[in-house]
Task: structure prediction
Amino acid sequence: SPNNQSVAFSQTGEALGANRQQILLIGKNRENFKGLVVEGRGFIPSWSPDGSQLLYSVWNGNEGYIPSLWLSGAEGDQVNANRRRMNVQTWADKCTWAGPTAVICGVPKQMSAGAGLQRSLFDVGPDTLYKLDLANGQVVPVGDIGTNTLVSSISVSSDGQTAFVTDGNSGQLLKVRL
Result:
């Protein structure tokens, strides 16, 4: 984690049924942190810049095995605090933090049932960029990034005005004004 409290995740937490699991946060100094309860499988994490929050994606059978984004507190006693679904269907590794309360994500224009089970068959593009305002839960389209663009990696400039997207289909680096 960016705050150096956690050094790894372990999916060896308590079994909580078919559509829930506990992810353990492994402390740098052998701390026993609270387990993070996630509503599905296929856990992909993305730490906030200060390490206090965790944006992650999971999928489950109740939602057609489609990956959804969630946000949770992620440090000390705040693990699981304010845990909420963000109502965005994508994988967390298609997102980047653009500040303490803003995230930019590549979101597939179409997502079919089963996408979480075999990502390589479903994550082919095209994607659209969205900005998630974590303070108020608002999700706003940033813009179309091309008719066949697949977000394979994304970063945001230090001033938060520009996104840099690597297109997984062409290999090109794209510059997008936010």
